[in-house]
Automatic annotation (TrEMBL):
One of its GO terms (cellular component) is cytoplasm. NADPH binds at N55. Pathway: Amino-acid biosynthesis; L-proline biosynthesis; L-proline from L-glutamate 5-semialdehyde: step 1/1. It is found in: Cytoplasm. GO terms for molecular function: pyrroline-5-carboxylate reductase activity. This is Pyrroline-5-carboxylate reductase. The gene is proC. Keywords: Amino-acid biosynthesis, Cytoplasm, NADP, Oxidoreductase, Proline biosynthesis. One of its GO terms (biological process) is L-proline biosynthetic process. Residues 2-96 form the Pyrroline-5-carboxylate reductase catalytic N-terminal domain. Catalyzes the reduction of 1-pyrroline-5-carboxylate (PCA) to L-proline. It comes from Lentilactobacillus buchneri DSM 20057.
Length: 265
């Protein structure tokens, strides 16, 4: 199976790195091209990928074609590759805000298409990706396309109407979790730890807590109760954060993210 990437920005690179770490396909079976020749050729050489001289060459040589360009150039790029796309190839889009209906309008109504919203953690095999397939993508072909993201983390099949909320609590929330970790580490610095040491403690604790939550099958509230002794330090901290508006501030952040992405700000 050959996988072609049109565009090799940060998100495309995260997926590629995740695929390489998972040994999903040999490096040379990943084909790349972007508008910046020096950039994609150096990137391909660094990781043993196959650089292609054009977007059409990527499509021609690939089974799965990952459209990883910015929304502003989607129309032009798809017009360029439309002649090489066929029902024998699967188009996978990671372009934010471009619906399946729009992709079908730009390409071919017989083309199998998977719309996806991966996040940057795909680079380390810990990604969280939402997918939605059009009616032409079914059975083994659909499973093949989704397997690309299963190799880089977890996958959920959602309705497109849920994508903006998913993006807020998965894509943008990567930054919000990092913000929380940084806040914990700054608190550690306040009490004498070095920033490096405090960040290591906070990051590992966050990682371990997420793993424990998923492995336990319990709710976050149950896990909070598990470490909150009656009259203890932890519940005192929880109550202080609640009093300071921790929960409303998180929800307001998600509200703002969704409003911005949907144009309702």
């Amino acid at each position: 199976m050959k996988i072609g990437f049109i565009g090799v920005g940060a998100m495309a690179q995260a997926i590629i790195q995740g695929l390489l770490k998972a040994e999903f396909v040999p490096a040379q079976d990943i084909l790349v091209h972007s508008a910046h020749q020096d950039h994609y050729e150096k990137y391909a050489a660094q990781y043993g990928l196959t650089p292609k001289e054009s977007n059409t060459a990527v499509v021609d040589g690939s089974d799965l074609v990952v459209l990883a360009v910015v929304p502003a150039v989607v129309t032009d790029v798809v017009a360029e590759i439309r002649g090489e796309l066929s029902a024998k190839k699967t188009l996978i889009s990671i372009v934010s805000g471009v619906s399946l209906d729009r992709l079908e309008e730009l390409t071919d109504y017989n083309l199998p298409i998977l719309r996806s919203l991966p996040n940057i953690n795909s680079e380390f095999g810990q990604g969280m990706t939402a997918v939605a397939a059009n009616e032409n993508l079914t059975g083994d072909r659909k499973a093949q396309a989704i397997s690309l993201y299963q190799a880089t983390g977890s996958v959920l099949e959602l309705k497109e109407s849920q994508f903006s909320v998913f993006s807020a609590i998965s894509g943008s929330a990567v930054a919000y979790v990092d913000f929380f970790i940084d806040s914990l580490s700054r608190a550690g610095v306040k009490y004498g730890f070095t920033k490096e040491m405090a960040t290591q403690i906070a990051a590992q604790t966050t990682l371990g807590s997420a793993h424990s939550l998923m492995a336990s099958k319990k709710s976050p509230a149950e896990m909070i109760d598990k470490v909150s002794s009656p009259g203890g330090d932890t519940i005192a901290g929880i109550l202080a954060m609640e009093e300071a508006g921790f929960l409303p501030s998180v929800i307001k952040g998600i509200d703002a993210t969704i409003a911005k992405s949907t144009g309702n700000h």
